[in-house]
């Protein structure tokens, strides 16, 4: 299958989505996509978390002690079809929110949904 650069532009987001499709992930099925924003302090993270909750976003907040410096991470969970334009729009919104709250947007990710044809075999009913 050749790559449709309108659906999968030649950038980080397009490359990830193209690879997901190439791996057999069904991009027409909604996924829970996780967007992350990092903060240098708990107070800044909590301020942003309250804003996101008021915007009716599903979030989690945790301290990442494994990074080189102590960071607080907000993960925003958005249930959506992994569509390039929608992902870019949300990224821009989360980047703006991060900037307004002295944080740093840290990207997105999601679980892949890959099914084998055998997973959908129908049982005959007599």
From TrEMBL:
<dbReference type="Pfam" id="PF06877">
    <property type="entry name" value="RraB"/>
</dbReference>
<protein>
    <recommendedName>
        <fullName>Regulator of ribonuclease activity B domain-containing protein</fullName>
    </recommendedName>
</protein>
<feature type="domain" description="Regulator of ribonuclease activity B">
    <location>
        <begin position="11"/>
        <end position="110"/>
    </location>
</feature>
<dbReference type="InterPro" id="IPR009671">
    <property type="entry name" value="RraB_dom"/>
</dbReference>
<dbReference type="InterPro" id="IPR036701">
    <property type="entry name" value="RraB-like_sf"/>
</dbReference>
